[in-house]
Specification:
- The chain has an eight-stranded mixed β-sheet, with helices on both faces.
- By secondary structure, the protein is of the alpha/beta class.
- The two termini are 33 Å apart.
- The longest helix has 20 residues, at 408-427.
- It has helices at residues 4-19, 25-41, 46-62, 71-86, 114-126, 144-155, 168-175, 197-210, 226-238, 255-264, 285-292, 298-308, 311-322, 328-341, 344-350, 361-379, 383-387, 394-404, 408-427, 441-447, and strands spanning 102-107, 132-137, 159-160, 184-189, 214-220, 242-246, 268-272, 280-282.
- It is built from 20 helices and eight strands.
- The chain folds into three domains: 4-86, SRP54, nucleotide-binding domain (Four Helix Bundle (Hemerythrin (Met), subunit A), Up-down Bundle), CATH 1.20.120; 102-293, Rossmann fold (3-Layer(aba) Sandwich); 301-459, Signal recognition particle, SRP54 subunit, M-domain (434 Repressor (Amino-terminal Domain)).
Length: 467
């Protein structure tokens, strides 16, 4: 992902704090220099880096840690808070008003991923119950109308285009009466290879004609320091209300695009994390910085989980697992939910504390491959075997292996994992009563004979735990 190097540098900086005995001015100076170096290497604006690091140093020297917080924890918290402040502090949501239609106009240079982002944004809101339509006003690029039609089709929304027409205002006026049927209209405009007078004039004309509720600037993460000039010019022309940063799954530095947002005061509202139609998420500064520092992003994780599985399904599966009653069908259902949430490597970035695990990316990719194999195994099992994996003998393993194209050792590994999971969940089953209600956490502790498993230490102070 973009800013991976920045994330690694910042994590290493925080490790220095964690390993230090004293928090003194020398350590703080070292910390500030490390942060400056990391941000500059990520292409962040020099003046912004200076202002940010100066504020971190001022707070670190002047502020006393609150009661109950160690100096090390307080210093880490200062770094976290200032990075969040730099990226916008709070999540900047688009509040779609009850007017028909609410209009979003997308602007940006050629190659920024504008048309693709129209489709992603349309899918994002369509999934949330809005009636969405797209409008193609890029009359200069010959392939633009067809590209918008295709991405709109992927998003499952209607698309208004007029091939051959060279006046974008005429296209808008032709379909204007039809737009009242929709809650949201997303407008794709023309881009250029560089900022030019005719592009700016066209954007200004469309802005006056359409009178959009939101003007979103689409910037590619690989644009570098040129992002600042672009953002300022577009902001002057149509009053940018927000930014969408695309190609955040690549290897670009990304700091230039983030700097542009800080300079223009236009908040980042979405980030594009891949090429698929669902690879778009709301930008949350707190969660984003949490990922950079290895603290995870629970809000984004929960949002993905809610899209993948309903609350009722989650409760039902949770009770089955804790009672040790789950079978291959339940495992398969859970795997389908994980698949909808995306690659394991992306999910791991969202888990708090996962940054400290240092799990190599190739290991996570292997896990993804393993999930595929397990899917083939499940599809080659009979209904009886899926409902009761205990009946799978050596002969059945051989048959499943031939049917699935998966080795017998992989099938035995799955069976072993199933047995171990079932045993562990039965041990934890004391937390759930016969009626499914939660039980005292002390029962769990007794089952482990006083030894709290690693990762459950935080439960010590809890009397009850809900599922």
């Amino acid at each position: 992902m973009v800013l991976d190097k920045l994330g690694e540098s910042l994590k290493n900086t925080l490790k220095k704090i964690a390993g230090s005995i004293f928090i003194d001015e020398k350590l703080i100076d070292e910390l500030v220099k490390d942060i400056q170096r990391a941000l500059l290497q990520a292409d962040v604006n020099v003046q912004l880096v200076f202002n940010l690091s100066k504020e971190i140093k001022r707070r670190a020297l002047d502020e006393k840690p609150p009661k109950g917080i160690s100096p090390r924890e307080h210093l880490v918290n200062i770094v976290y808070e200032e990075l969040v402040r730099f990226l916008g502090k709070e999540k900047a949501e688009i509040r779609i008003e009850k007017k028909k239609p609410f209009k979003i106009m997308m602007v940006g240079l050629f190659g920024s991923g504008k048309s693709t982002t129209v489709g992603k944004l349309a899918k994002y809101y369509a999934k949330r119950g809005y009636r969405v339509a797209s409008l193609g006003l890029d009359v200069h690029r010959p392939a633009a109308p067809e590209q918008l039609r295709q991405v709109s089709e992927q998003a499952g929304i209607p698309c208004f285009i007029e091939k051959g027409e060279k006046d974008p205002v005429k296209i808008y006026k032709k379909y204007e009466k039809d737009f009242s049927k929709y809650d949201l209209l997303i407008v794709d405009t023309a881009g250029r290879d560089a900022l030019s007078k005719d592009l700016i004039e066209e954007i200004e004309l469309l802005n006056r004609t359409i009178q959009p509720d939101e003007n979103l600037l689409v910037i590619s993460a690989d644009i570098g320091q040129a992002a600042q000039k672009q953002a300022e010019q577009f902001h002057q022309s149509c009053g940018i209300t927000g930014v969408i940063v695309t190609k955040m799954d690549g290897t670009a530095k990304g700091g230039g695009a983030l700097s542009a947002c800080a300079i223009t005061k236009a908040p980042i509202k979405f980030i594009g994390l891949g090429e698929k139609i669902d690879d778009l998420e709301e930008f949350n500064p707190k969660g984003f910085v949490g990922r950079l520092l290895g603290m995870g992003d629970l809000e984004a994780l929960l949002a993905k989980a809610q899209e993948a599985i309903t609350e009722e399904e989650a409760k039902d599966l949770g009770k089955k697992f804790l009672k040790g009653e789950f079978n291959f069908l339940d495992l398969y259902e859970q795997m389908q939910a994980v698949k909808k949430m995306g690659p394991l490597s992306k999910i791991m970035d969202l888990l708090p504390g996962s940054g400290g695990l240092n799990i190599p990316k190739d290991v996570l990719n292997v896990q993804d491959e393993k999930l595929k194999k397990w899917k083939y195994i499940f599809q080659s099992c009979t209904k009886e075997e899926l409902e009761d994996p205990e009946i799978i003998t050596k002969e059945r393993v051989d048959r499943i292996s031939k049917g699935s194209g998966v080795s017998a050792s992989d099938i035995r590994e799955l069976l072993k994992m199933y047995q171990q999971s079932k045993k562990l969940m039965r041990m934890m089953g004391g937390m759930v009563g016969k009626d499914g209600e939660e039980q005292d956490i002390n029962k769990l502790m007794r089952k482990f004979k006083g030894k709290i498993p690693k990762g459950l230490g935080k439960l010590k102070g809890m009397k009850k735990m809900k599922f």
